[in-house]
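Q:
Got a chain?
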Amino acid sequence: MKIEKIAAGLSVSGQIFPQDIESLAAAGFKTILCHRPDGEGADQPTFTELDALAKQAGIEMRYLPVESGKVSDEDVQAFSQAHSSMAKPVLAYCRSGMRAVTLWGLSQAPMLGLQTVLASAKAAGYDLSGLTYRLAGGSEIPANISHHQIVIVGAGAAGIATASSLLARDPGLDIAIIDPAEIHYYQPGWTMVGGGVFRPETTVRTMASVIPAQVKWIKAAVAAFEPNHNRLLLEGCKPLSYDVLVVCPGIKLNWHGIEGLVDTLGENGVTSNYRYDLAPYTWQLVSQMQRGKAVFTQPPMPIKCAGAPQKAMYLSADHWRRSGHLSNIQIDFYNSGPVLFGVKEYVPALMEYVQRYDAHLHFGHRLTKVDGRAKRAWFAVTEADGAQRTVETEFDMLHVVPPQQAPDFVRASPLVDAAGWVDVDQYTLRHKQYANLFALGDVTNAPNAKTAAAARKQAPVVAENVIAALAGKEMQAIYDGYGSCPLTVERGKIVLAEFGYGGKLLPSFPRWFINGQRPSRLAWWLKERILPPVYWKAMLKGREWLAGPAKPVKSDD
């Protein structure tokens, strides 16, 4: 955590974490002001978690969330009022500190003047030049704005793989990638962290180390899309234009979608492998548990890696079996959906493990509320006749998967369908309305599984089709809906589910080598030893091993 003093009594920083509270108290801060909405990032602690620790340390916390890139006049006024009434010194934070500095700058510009605000922000390491016209009291978009041939929104697996696949085809392309995060995560590894197989640090790289050197990295958040003008707005209302836009910012985990969840995450036996900092807590709970009731949940679709909720169950149960405690632990799996897995060919193998671990399956149960201290959870159940009822259960360990949706700045844009997902042709991944706009990864409405394996297959398709769009040609590649879900049914064995649109089986290997419908040690070896280096050294580098795009079938008409 880097703290920068921006004015007398006010400092700013990027995201703070629970372990930072004690040092902030020792540094003399009296108040902490949070401008980052909960749920923006996979490694982000909630305000409630931090507030509880701050109270213990004698620090007041206030929550004034501001959507990235959308600092309104009302936000500025709220900041001014809050800051004037707070005990000093104050630390204001968001993801990078930019929103906090922006609020301060806009609130102080009328008194201090434009040049003083810009200089103070620059001295603290923040560039407010994109706000010049607004700081000066205006609101017009500048006439001369930055431009790139290809702009990619999001530097996750999909974004970096697409950039690398584009450069592999044409190293001379002018590409910019937009993402404010400093860290890149190998999220498929978090299930293995929660199962005690991987160390969490093996799933982390700096963003600078994985973005291709030829790509311009814009460390900012997107505020809004203006596709009719081939333009988008960055935080600070800084415009950026493009010839082709690729949208792949990932998915938002809605922790607030379950009442009481944010108040107890990371304690009271409540955990989730869907957050980097909580996956080790999962393993702590599993390795220490010797008796009691373990509850695992799955929210309504779509979610990323739909097999992950039950992977956590299988790896936990296998550890309890190996340690001799399984007979003393009741396992319950509450699934919002109607079936264990969406592709029926893999269900028989999974059911063998459900029976081996004596797990109780509850379909049509959606987690709605958690009371961590009381160790209680509540589920909404829809009966066959449409009637609703509530089911309550106790737990000693609760593994939660939150409901998920497209990021807020995407859902509020003109790019989405009625459900809030970017509206693309499922085969070409081109937007249905804007011909120079493509999307891939978790944010699209294509009916495929939202997995890293899907993004690995989609990136070359988008790369081929972006190059075709730049040349004014027809789309050159199609995506068949491929997705892969390595279901870790026990330590050392995996059911390797590979399928495409409509549940069509799309195995990568001959059946004699890996039979995806049966648990396999080779599939475990693939997941544990091969896929991580394939991710870091192939997928993110534009090396399309077993991922080359298919070509459209030409009609005889």
